[in-house]
Amino acid sequence: MGLSKSWSDFGLSGPKNLNLDEILKIEFPFLYKSLVEYANPAYIEVGSFYYGDDETSISDFFPLTQSYEYGSFLWCALDNSIIPKGILPFARYAGDFLICFDYRETKTSPKIILLDSFMSEIYPISNNFKVFWSFYMSD
């Protein structure tokens, strides 16, 4: 699907804007917002991406809600001492590594990283969500 399409073109209607970007004082990538608006949470069954010499895929996206419950997007973003400040997990892969937005350098155009929170290792994936998604869906 090209960026000129909207999920609503397929008869899907998403929830109202949750304004989480305003709560967190960041700007979510447009493509990410479009994805979760109509598939929240999203369970992606195809695609893969590389980190270093290894390959993985997305297991699931975290639900984008205003809940602070364990495992929610806001819990990961605000109430978690394991995840470095400025890194916001939006998905995970089957091995429990976290796929994250990296807002440490900018609040408007995050890089995408893979975080092994147990080993405190960060693997760069892409410079933005659009590039990450194109890697992921090209497989």
The CATH class, by name, is Alpha Beta
Average pLDDT confidence is 77
What's the total helix number?
Answer: 4
Distance between the termini: 15 Å
Structural class: alpha+beta
* Corresponding CATH architecture: 3-Layer(aba) Sandwich
The parts where pLDDT drops under 50 for at least 5 residues are: 10-14
Measured on Cα atoms, how large is the radius of gyration? 14 Å
Sheet with the most strands? Answer: 5 strands, antiparallel
What amount of the residues lies in strands? 15-25%
Order of helices and strands: HHEEEHEEEEH
Helix percent band: 10-25%
CATH topology: SMI1/KNR4-like
InterPro entries: Knr4/Smi1-like_dom (IPR018958), Knr4/Smi1-like_sf (IPR037883)
Protein name: Knr4/Smi1-like domain-containing protein
Characterise this structure.
By secondary structure, the chain is of the alpha+beta class. It has one domain: SMI1/KNR4-like, CATH 3.40.1580. Helices cover 22% and strands 22% of the residues. It contains four helices and seven strands; from the N terminus they run ααβββαββββα. The strands form two sheets. A five-stranded antiparallel sheet has the order 3-4-5-6-7. The two termini are 15 Å apart. 24% of the residues are buried.
